[in-house]
Design goal:
By secondary structure, the protein is an all-alpha fold. The chain has 6 helices and no strands.
């Protein structure tokens, strides 16, 4: 089993970036926002390259299939929860946080359930759009306190957060439908 591969290293790097992002944000300073953003951009870049390199170098592994979605869910959920803790997302903007975190937990449980049937649930194109939109939203929201107001980072971040929430729910329903179809076929 290939554990020590470049793609798996990149995935682990993404997980290891999370504490740096959170600590930077909690300084609640200009430099903290931008340093957190740099850590975050590195994490987002590794998300693209780990899969690309795994396919290109034929280093797709069970460890990578296991860790990659976990790394994504940890990154997104931790940052969203941090934004709530920092008061960056309040009121109606808590709805996307709750829905995204609940969906991520649900899909993780669904994947575990399907593993008992030896059914894999690969990431769909819709899931990739969801992840990209979430990452863009989180990036805009990360720098909005320190970015010039004319950059409209708050407005762009909130708009993309709501769009990503719709994509999150849509992809969750799609995964559920696929899972129901697969398990009903497994029973016949």
């Amino acid at each position: 089993m290939a554990v020590y591969t470049i793609p798996n290293f990149l995935t682990m790097l993404r997980i290891l970036a999370i504490p740096g992002i959170v600590c930077s944000l909690y300084t609640q300073s200009f430099w903290g926002d931008w340093i957190g953003f740099i850590f975050y951009m590195v994490a987002c870049i590794t998300d693209f390259f780990d899969g690309y390199i795994a396919r290109a170098m034929r280093q797709i592994s069970m460890v990578g299939r296991f860790l990659d979605p976990i790394a994504d869910k940890l990154l997104v959920s931790t940052i969203l929860i941090s934004y709530v803790g920092l008061g960056r997302l309040v009121g109606w903007n808590l709805i996307p946080v709750i829905l995204i975190v609940c969906r991520e937990i649900f899909i993780s449980g669904l994947r575990e359930f399907l593993a008992d049937y030896q059914i894999r649930m690969p990431v769909s194109q819709l899931g990739k759009w969801k992840t990209t939109t979430q990452m863009l939203a989180l990036g805009f929201l990360m720098i909005y306190p320190s970015a010039p107001k004319e950059w409209l980072t708050w407005e762009m971040g909130v708009l993309l957060l709501w769009i990503s929430t719709l994509l999150t729910l849509w992809s969750g329903v799609s995964y559920m439908r696929c899972a129901l179809h697969q398990t009903s076929r497994a029973h016949h």
